Amino acid sequence: MSKLPDPAAADVDLADDVDAARAEIVRVGTSLFARGYVHASAGNISAKVGDSHLITPTDAALGFLDPDRLALVDAGGEQIAGDRASKTLTLHRRICAADPTARFVIHTHSTHLVALTLAGVWSKDDVLPPLTPYYVMKVGHVPLIPYHRPGDPRVADLVTGHIADRAAGRTPIRAVLLDRLGPVVWGPDAASALAVLEELEETARLWLLTDRRPEPLTSPALDELKAVFGASW
Description:
By secondary structure, the chain is of the alpha+beta class. About 40% of the residues lie in helices and about 15% in strands. The protein contains 7 helices and 8 strands; from the N terminus they run αββββαβααβαββαα. The protein has an 8-stranded mixed sheet with strand order 4-3-2-1-5-8-7-6, with helices on both faces. Helix 2 (about 90-100) runs parallel beside helix 5 (about 155-170) and helix 3 (about 110-120) crosses helix 6. The longest helix is centred in the first third of the chain and has 28 residues, at about 5-35. The termini are far apart. InterPro entries: Aldolase_class_II_sugar_metab, Aldolase_II/adducin_N, Aldolase_II/adducin_N_sf. It comes from Streptomyces rectiviolaceus. Keywords: Lyase, Metal-binding.
């Protein structure tokens, strides 16, 4: 006879996962602040734990997070612990629902990416040209989301629409750029999401530093990256 699962043990495992996610969010927030990716109380971070979500509180300074004050939200979107959740909670939850691989989401007001929206992006479907091989391999396509006020729920519709469209075309996305507000990136874990954010911000910096003059990689070069590394472009 098979042994029934122990509900108490499952609760302990979930609590351990929540504690680990709290520590990871604090670690990422501290790193982003130390390296100048975030300032003041701009930006937010979330992690999906089971069917629940942990997210930084509204107006929290990401460089000085208290793990016990992170907002814990259940599967139905009801907050069950911590300070009041970030106003972008809906966006984070819907990204994870739209992309099954998304379990860690980061939004920053990174300087060069916000500057890019002010100076003018390459195109609304690709905010930056494919300048370097690592941009193509690690980031891929990044659409521009037109300006809406912070926390506007309509943004989630636009972002998940892009996720669905790109998935249907077999060129899944890992990030979007919010006009005047900065990037939102996601991945299966913190390291993956950070890699996207860092490569995206660095490429924006390079393009702005070169006065947006460099030509993109050629079609044969892009085809080679797709063939050899499975790049999504």
